[in-house]
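dumping these here so i dont lose them again. two proteins, back to back, each one seq then structure tokens. dont judge the mess
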Amino acid sequence: MSLVTIRPLFVVLSDPTVGLAGGLIGYGIGHIKGAMASWRLEFLIVGAVCAAWGVVIALTLANSPLTSRWFNKEEKLMMLARMRRNQTGIEAKRIKWGQVREAVTDYKTVCHIASLDMSRRTCGLNRLLSTVDVLRLGLGRKHSQRRYQ
């Protein structure tokens, strides 16, 4: 199985993991007592962590495997051979509109994007409805991800 087919699988499988981690983080931040509303505090804390992570990625991640600092020449040649096998290319400076047209009209690509979109919508709806259900059960705002003050 090629990496081109495995990578979207990781994207789909990461959604429940992110939901679990987000719920735990939200629960912990919801118990912080302060002058600021807990949902605002959550936005500030999670936003600061995401911004810091974005800076780290921008400074360390190379544009291409061939320009990375941490791979030796053998590893770079191995990655180049893998990209050639997968027909993914190394770097494109211009958009090739024929390839865009081919991707938009390819039924497999359209079905793949539609299935990813429906998966994301389902997971998002599941998170929203589980929060509403917890509030309906009378467990209080601290037991759900929704904390309005």
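---- next one ----
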Amino acid sequence: MATTAGAQIGLKKIEAAINELAEQVDATKFNETVQNWLAFNASFYHYSFMNTLNIWLQMPTATLVGGAGNCWKPKGRRPIKGAKIVWVLAPIIVGKDKNDPGNKGKLVGFCSRPAYDVSQTEGAPLPDAPCWWTDEKLPELFQALEKVAFDMGVTVEEDALFMEKNSGARGVSMGGSVVLDTAAGTKTLVHELAHEIQRKEGLSSDCAQRETEAEAVAYVVTTHFGGTVESSANYIALKGADSAILRKRLSVIAKMAQHLIEAVQAELPKIVTEDNSDYYEVTNTFADRAIGYTDEDEDDEDL
């Protein structure tokens, strides 16, 4: 990795990278593959938290669940013979008038309805899924990030079955702990550490905004250290973000990225061998270091 130990990266350079990503996101949103996938996903019912939990308990690997008649049939697909039903709760509404948009009827209860995951169906081809991940491994960067995580008070674990158990997700941040699939790329670790910073600093209550910020940080940090990140624009576009959202949060994203880059640059010279156990006796100072975000960062008039 071509970088100077201890060198500081300027915010202007980081902001330029974020603006470049913003342009990529806008271009990606009009990509036919992304458009088709977004339209396909939008046609599915958005289940409540309890229904989502209920689906997960029955089929942890489920990704897109719908009824055979009202969901899969219009898409030219049908349940595979012998497929196990995924039961969901459906509302019972009486008195609804289709000719009167204002009359939504009265909810009188719930009943169980059969549904099937996309993996349990066959028929018309599914739209191509845009690639939103990268499995590129950058060993030195990964080791440095692990040490940065240690100083943040964050443990990093790998699980060979994580993707299988979590519907294809590459990693998760749980507040003091990050779990990655062993196949996940180095960018995923940056993404999850960005989530850890968001929690520590109390940033971004909106889920889509959190994901957009974390992926933008992952893009900036990974490319800075020589990684090839072509999937970030897809990831952010699939979260419904665009260049305007990225630029509104530019200052916050840039500070998080700068924070991680400088922390990594400080650790890279220490990585001499894979077994550097003496490092783990250092004082935990990173976790107590304030990044210095302010409310003004969210609405910077110069952005």
